[in-house]
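Late entry, evening session. Most of the bench is empty. Finally got around to the prediction I had been postponing all week. Sequence below, unchanged from the version circulated by S.P.
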Amino acid sequence: MHQKTTEFTDNLTRTTKNNTFTFGTHNEFYDITYNFVNARNGRDAFKSVADFLADNPSRVRANYNYTNNSRDYILANPSAKFKVNLLSLYGRGRDPGN
């Protein structure tokens, strides 16, 4: 997985005779690329060490890229790319006497 993250935060504070007001924003921008290269040719599961030594898997999961199964190709052509944006605004008012 490759992830690029950018964050932006800014606050504005105004004080009057009786109150202090703070307004702001905090934003996070994610650019995520999943390549799923680990175990690219599948996985075997064994219930015990004895089963492993006897080459007797309890479960076999296969994965194969029909276009090109090389690691370099899979890294250059990710199977999932997406962006996530978390945007927020906030405000707060305070009476300095409290």
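Two things to note before I forget:
The chain has a mean pLDDT of 87.
Residues 38-77 form one domain.
Will write this up properly tomorrow.
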